[in-house]
Design goal:
By secondary structure, this protein is mostly beta strands. It is 12% helix and 33% strand. It has five helices and 14 strands.
Length: 307
């Protein structure tokens, strides 16, 4: 029985790269019933720091303070939007797949994927992650249940209570039903660095992943590879009868560092250091930072909360 491609999601890139080959280079396919799919070509485009996601975390910041004992409204909470910006590497697969059993009104192709190997963070064992490519014109949404420590859906009636957010991804495919299966994605470096404000180490990468899905609608992958090390992808296509085709060439990509900035929150759009640290860093780093001044904490939350 041929191996079926797993349906999961992940990725992202470094410099601009294209991998392409001719139809006759296609690897032998596995046939069950009918004719197997044919992978005509595979292109992988990548761009270091080509992705930018910007997210407003003002409501989440206010709720987080409220949940930790600061009555809502007792602080001069961010006067201007508290914005987190993520710069990351982007990648896009463009794969042309045909199947002799396609008809005018229906395709026989079930699944097209690009897969890479990483290490499972919980077990330390090798794990295969697969990115599903679609020929849907970008119209089919995928649900992404937020990760990270703090819930981000603060749209309810109670400003102090947030629930687990569910964000939408899509394939980034440009045209529906043209035989070209596409998928845009984000690849994050293992170490994500906060470049501004300086001196804060990121304590929860989940917020960064959430921001990318929330703003760019792309799946955020974190690999165990270091910046500059290439990542190779296995390209497979499966039809509805279970016939499997594998592209003989493994396109590869590298990726650049993922960086984060936090801006705003203060009067006149000034950066509130305390708010940025509470949102992104750890409690130890936040002690005595200026910002989040209020009626109950005149010296600021990061000063008064640690007295």
């Amino acid at each position: 029985m041929p191996k079926r491609t797993t349906v999961a999601l992940l990725l992202s890139g470094g410099i601009f790269l294209w991998g392409c080959s001719k139809t006759q280079d296609t690897a032998p396919a596995t046939r069950l019933f009918g004719s197997p799919p044919v992978i005509q070509s595979v292109d992988l485009a990548q761009m270091a720091n080509g992705g930018v996601a910007v997210c407003d975390y003002t409501a989440e910041m206010n709720a987080l303070l409220c949940q930790n004992g600061v009555p809502f409204g007792s602080l001069i909470t961010p006067l201007t939007p508290l914005l987190v910006t993520v710069n990351y590497t982007t990648g896009t697969f463009t794969t042309h797949v045909t199947d002799p059993d396609n008809t005018t009104n229906a395709t026989d192709i079930l699944l097209v994927t690009g897969s890479f190997l990483t290490t499972d963070a919980s077990t330390g064992r090798p794990s295969e992650v697969s990115l599903v490519m679609l020929d849907d014109g970008g119209t089919l949404p995928f649900n992404f249940k937020q990760t990270g420590v703090n819930f981000e859906d603060c749209s309810g009636a109670d400003p102090c209570a947030c629930s687990q957010a569910v964000y939408k991804m899509n394939s980034n495919d440009s045209k529906q039903n043209d035989g070209i299966f596409m998928r845009g994605f984000a690849m994050l470096s293992p170490k994500i660095v906060i470049t501004d404000p300086p001196g804060i180490a990121l304590s929860d990468s989940g917020l960064i992943q959430n921001c990318i899905v929330r703003d760019s609608h792309q799946y955020p992958a974190i690999t165990n590879r270091q910046v500059g090390q290439p990542i190779s992808f296995k390209i497979e296509a499966v039809d509805k009868e279970g016939n499997l085709a594998t592209w003989p060439i493994k396109p590869s990509m590298s990726f650049g560092p993922t960086t984060v900035t936090c801006k705003g929150g203060g009067p006149g759009g000034a950066t509130d250091l305390c708010a940025c640290c509470i949102l992104l860093g750890s409690a130890v780093e936040c002690q005595n930072l200026p910002g989040l001044v209020g009626t109950t904490m005149p010296d600021g939350f990061c000063v008064d909360a640690f007295k």
